[in-house]
Amino acid sequence: MQHRAPSSTRARRWRLAAVPLLAGALLHATAARADGEGQADEADLHFDLGRDLYKQGRFQAALEHFLASNRLVPNRNVVFNIALTYEELGRFADAHRYYDDALEGETDPEVVAELQAALQRIAPRVAVLQIVTSPPGARIYVDRKDLGARGTAPRRLAMAEGRYRILVELAGYEPVAVDDIAVKLGQSEEVLIVLRRIVGTVRVDVRGASEATVHVDHEGAPPACTAPCELDLPPGRHVLHFSRAGFQAAPQPLTVAAHETVPITATLSPLTGSILVRADEPDALVEIDGHPMGFTPSVIQGVPVGRRRIRVSLRGFAPVERTIEVAAGQQAELRDVTLEPLREVSSASRVLERLEDAPASISVIEQQELRAFGYPTIAEALRGARGVYLSNDHVVYSAGIRGLGEPLDYGNRLLVLSDGHSTNDNVLNASFVGSDARDDLHDVDHIEVVRGPGSLLYGTGALSGIVNLVPRGRDEPTSAHVAAGTYYDGVGHARAGFHYNARSDAGAWASVTGARSDGFDVPVVLRDPGEGPRTQIAERAESFRAGGTSGRAWYGPFTAQWMYHRREQLIPTGYVSTRLNDLGTSYEDAHMMAEVRFEPRLAPDLQLMARAHVNRFVWRGAYKFEEATIFEQQHGTWLGAELRAAWTPLSWLRVTGGGEMQAHPEATLGSVFADGRVLTKPEPFGFAAGYLIADGSPAPWARVSAGARLDVYSSFGPIVVPRAAIILRPAPGGVLKIMGGRAFRVPSVSEQFYTDGKTQVPAVDPAHGLALDPESIVSVEVEYAQRLGDDWTALGAVHASKLSEGISSAEVGPGVVRYVNSPLDAFVTGCDVEVRREWRQGWMLAATYGYQRGQLTGGERLINAPGHLASFRGVVPVVERLASAALRINVEAPRRIDRSSGAETASAIVADLTVSGELQRFHSRYVIGIYNAMDTRYDYPAAESYLSATSRQNGRTFLAEITVSYP
Prior knowledge:
Layout: H1 7-35, H2 37-55, H3 59-72, H4 76-88, H5 92-103, H6 109-122, E1 127-134, E2 139-142, E3 155-159, E4 162-169, E5 176-183, E6 188-194, E7 200-207, E8 212-216, E9 223-227, E10 229-233, E11 236-243, E12 247-248, E13 252-256, E14 261-267, E15 269-270, E16 272-279, E17 285-288, E18 291-295, E19 298-304, E20 306-313, E21 320-326, E22 331-337, E23 344-345, E24 353-354, E25 361-365, H7 367-373, H8 378-382, E26 388-392, E27 397-401, E28 414-418, E29 421-422, E30 444-451, H9 455-458, E31 465-471, E32 479-487, E33 491-503, E34 506-517, E35 520-525, E36 535-541, E37 544-555, E38 558-570, E39 586-598, E40 601-603, E41 606-624, E42 629-650, E43 653-672, E44 678-682, E45 685-699, E46 702-713, E47 719-728, E48 734-745, H10 749-753, E49 775-788, E50 792-804, E51 807-813, E52 816-821, E53 826-840, E54 843-856, E55 868-879, E56 883-892, E57 908-919, E58 924-931, E59 939-941, E60 950-952, E61 957-966
Parallel strand pairs: 1-6, 7-14, 16-22, 28-31
Antiparallel strand pairs: 1-3, 2-4, 4-5, 7-10, 8-9, 8-11, 11-13, 12-15, 16-19, 17-18, 17-20, 20-21, 23-24, 25-30, 26-27, 28-29, 30-31, 32-33, 32-61, 33-34, 34-37, 35-36, 37-38, 38-39, 39-41, 40-41, 41-42, 42-43, 43-44, 43-45, 45-46, 46-47, 47-48, 48-49, 49-50, 50-53, 51-52, 53-54, 54-55, 55-56, ...
């Protein structure tokens, strides 16, 4: 039932409506005519009819005409009249809605006040729903969509009392329906509806960088997220843009579907420039921000823009670090990088130190020299080193230092190390330096030669000196290589290996090698030719087959190294009076070692080194004599452990202390004699040792080193060896070393117990009170070196040594010999001079001369000790990187041959020529050359048990080698 307002109220409304109705008519007519005469006239007609009907109180009819007028030409004032009419009809909810519509956008204060008054007037008669959506603008439906929209949110809806269902829709958002909203008359209920966007998901990944900023649709749009990320976008086509400082990436167009996921990968490539790097040394490693990028000289392309840290390093030189700015598409230049030689060694003190600070007389055979001359063996690398001389009887190659090295002593007064680990065996104490040591020197970075006693750190065997092979370093780039070559005309050798860097402090390198030779002919001058010619030819001398492997692995402070080598050789040269040219005389040897180390820096001033090792040596020989064949074998197994600490309590003081233990459970001599007797002599032994060294620089111009070691053997009493050195710098670039010390060598198991069952008897025979004591040497030396500019050094040294209890074979009966301690001391005195240009820009020059006199008490000269040692070595670049020419000249001075006479070998000059270089296009390195280019014929003394008193050395031989690497 429709309700009417009281007559007083209606009268008031007539008065209130008069002005709006009139104004509405005028405005309506003006606006309508602006749209079109016909439509405006029709709107005016409906308006006039509605107005007349309204005055007559015929509100229903008036409403129809007002609504028609508003449909034709919408007008806020007509809306106001519609609201008045609905109010008169008692349809307060509809009146409220139209009053709201009229109020929206109204600016006239009087009209606004009238409308607000009308709303307040009917408020008690309606229930109001305040619809708010987030975001705003959603279309509002009540109960059903087919009834039409009630406007857009936010909006007030006046309703009759009851329960309603509100539906809202907004383009791009999920529609939402809110059911059962209860409203009461005179009350207002707010309904907040949060709309959920209709979206798809874009999963953005990044390649080429760790992250990138994502922009949607426009490159300059605000960042949407930082990839890798997931991004919600409305359905449709979009374009993603990516940004990161120093990088560029192509935009990625995509189509997003509702409720689906689209994967996108942003591929970033750095904005790059290039860097030209030149150094005064070729082949220096160039690292950019810690990553190896090439070798000097080079132009490195593709360098990311920005500030870059450049590090140029070369083994043996102090690294240079610079910071440089790289611009996109431009070349930055780093020219004239000067690398200063480090001149560091580790064999004198077992810690890395500068050469001038080492308390010993040391020479270094650099890697460049090893490669330039293509040295195939340790012995060839040592040839020409200051104070060193060689012996070779075509069975065993050995080296002596400063007069201490006799024929067939197996080089047992010299200690050969692999990165500080002794490679001498425990039966012969032999130092392997020929093809019995290894098949080539590719795994050796450089060689340190220490002249003088070294027992302080290394114990027995370091009597005359030390040769330390320093292996390839950790810092080489990942690569693989193969190599093949020949030397001495008949020796062919090959290898394959790799270097792998798993990370900055972890990696490994390893190699396998093989070598063989069919030998060569050697003239043998017989001591007793009988009825035959005095000079005969031994065929296939040094015919051998060999192979082995070595390697190194590291992880942080842990290091493991291993080596295995085996060789079989024919001996047709009358070795120990065997039949000449009988190829049944042969031997085979094998030696191996494995070592693990742990070398952490526990504190800035404390370095620890712990190591454990196991070793094995096997020698088997078959000796063909005129009357019978004798078979011999020697087996050795030993293991040990060492712990050492270097403490620096003060900036100028270092204290090194340590100890080691070794067990030799197997040191066995075995023989099968001509009469069928079998002799096996196991002689296990062990020892423990401790040492302490203090090195300090109380003043910038002075350094002092002093220490001592105590060794206790199971078969000998305690042995103490001291060492001391004073190092002074009396002038800029000058270093004066005053050094002295003692060293020892315990007799080998072979020297103590070997017997051939006939002419050789054991040296140790407790039943008859026969023993063999350790050798001992005391040495002093004064050395002065003066640097001349950046590259040259001049050096002079004088030295003196006294060897006591020297071990050698002596005749103890008619035709019977054994090893004995000499009752006479041996004295060696001498001097050295050397002028050397260090390796710079591919050049090296070194000239040395040494005089030494070795004699026993009473003046008798030592066997096999040359009085003069002279050499020259030089390398000159001919074509940069492609070719360098090298020349080595050695003077072979006369040597006393045996004790029974004053006979000497003849002097000789031996010259070696090589050319070496790189074929960069083929990733190859080569060396070709001629050893003994003048085909000089010269001899070394042989042992007294040989058929010949001397051993003829090789004439002119050819050397060639090629190494191919990848990359």
